[in-house]
Specification:
Length: about 375
């Protein structure tokens, strides 16, 4: 048997590489003679740089002290790939876990722009920006300001940081904005959300960043004002990624918005691995309706279906039906008796899930 294990991270619990190893160990507990290939994945959010570093032996890490989402100093990093491509992961400089508590109106993306600036200073000729896991809903204005843009109120004063301040936005001065690198800019997104509306950055993702109804309304109004000032296409798929950072970089810096999961699956060699696989196992913290709209699990399940390979899902919780053709799904919360128990010891429950999948494969008559 040839098994491919290709999970995302289980957010707040275990990273993708450790999750893949635990599932592989469980499968080997029951079927020690099978061949297992682990392909940890990401979708542009947390773990993107780790996936790329594992896939590219000549990748080089760079460290930099930058401004965190609350303006505090944080240790950020970016990855240099061959061909003078720099990959920046927004979550490492402006991610929600970097806050001691959510601050939906004042959280900022400044540090992400600072990391991009460091990469440009080092000679990067192409920028890839992984969007996901953000703490803010500032439309990317903090990052763009760090690169030289100015966002001004009616009196010509620079706005305070954060999405809450966008309600006072009157104009944008992009004359001092650093030009994008000659090789262009690509934003990898894990969502297809537009900037505005009931499916947009504030309405859908604001509550995940601590915003109550009144704050969601304020953030929506601020993003709408930003769209009136900058123009562009706020309805573009992925414009709402990372609190509207996708929109900000597409409009002000000419960035191309691309599905992150599909791109990272390509870089990691998933298609080649599936060509010889008997089963693929994927996983994430929560599988729901959004998982098929740009997330790793949706991309892997779709790739498996296209290759005619049976697929299984392991997730902390499963809140949506698996697509047709999928073999089996296991909820770690149900396996452990409670979600909290699964999160406290993810290796234990992922290993048990792997063992159950191996036993179930033979029991269901699928063993060739």
């Amino acid at each position: 048997m040839r098994i491919v294990i290709a999970p995302d991270s289980f957010k707040g619990s275990i990273d993708a590489a450790a999750a893949a190893s635990a599932l592989a160990a469980g499968w080997h507990d029951a079927r020690g003679g099978d061949e297992i290939t682990c392909i940890p994945l990401a979708d542009g959010g947390e773990g993107t740089l780790d996936v790329l570093a594992a896939a590219e032996p000549d990748a080089r890490w760079h460290q930099a002290q930058v401004s965190g989402p609350a303006g505090q100093a944080v240790s950020g990093s970016w990855l240099e790939l061959p061909g003078r491509t720099a990959v920046v992961e927004l979550a490492r400089a402006s991610g929600l876990p970097l806050l001691s508590q959510p601050d939906p109106l004042r959280a900022q993306t400044t540090g992400t722009g600072e990391l991009i600036g460091r990469a440009l200073d080092a000679g990067a000729e192409r920028i890839v920006l992984g969007l996901g896991g953000s703490a803010s809903t500032d439309g990317g204005t903090g990052a763009l300001a760090a690169l030289g843009a100015r966002f001004l109120d009616a009196a010509g004063n620079a706005l305070a940081a954060g999405g809450g301040a966008l309600a006072e936005l009157a104009s944008a001065d992009l004359s001092g904005l650093r030009p994008p690198p000659p090789g262009g800019v690509t934003c990898l997104t894990d969502v297809t959300a537009p900037l505005l509306g009931p499916l947009g950055a504030a309405a859908v993702f604001g509550p995940q960043k601590g915003a109550g109804p009144g704050q969601v309304a304020a953030l929506e109004a601020g993003l709408a004002r930003l769209a009136r000032v900058l123009g562009g296409d706020p309805a573009a798929p992925g414009a709402g990624a990372a609190g509207g950072t996708g929109y900000g970089f597409a409009t002000a810096w000419g960035a191309v918005i691309a599905p992150g999961a599909a791109e990272l699956c390509r870089i990691a060699g998933l298609s080649a691995a599936l060509a010889h696989a008997d089963l693929v196992i994927t996983g994430e913290g929560r599988y729901d309706l959004t998982s098929t709209a740009g997330k790793v699990t949706g991309a892997v399940l779709a790739a498996a279906a296209g290759a005619g390979v049976p697929a299984a899902l392991v997730a902390g919780s499963i809140a949506a039906e698996l697509p047709g053709g999928s073999w089996r799904g296991i909820s770690l919360g149900e396996l452990a008796g409670a979600a909290a128990a699964a999160q406290e010891d993810p290796v234990r429950w992922l290993r048990l899930a792997g063992r159950q999948l191996a036993a179930g494969w033979a029991r269901d008559g699928l063993d060739p």
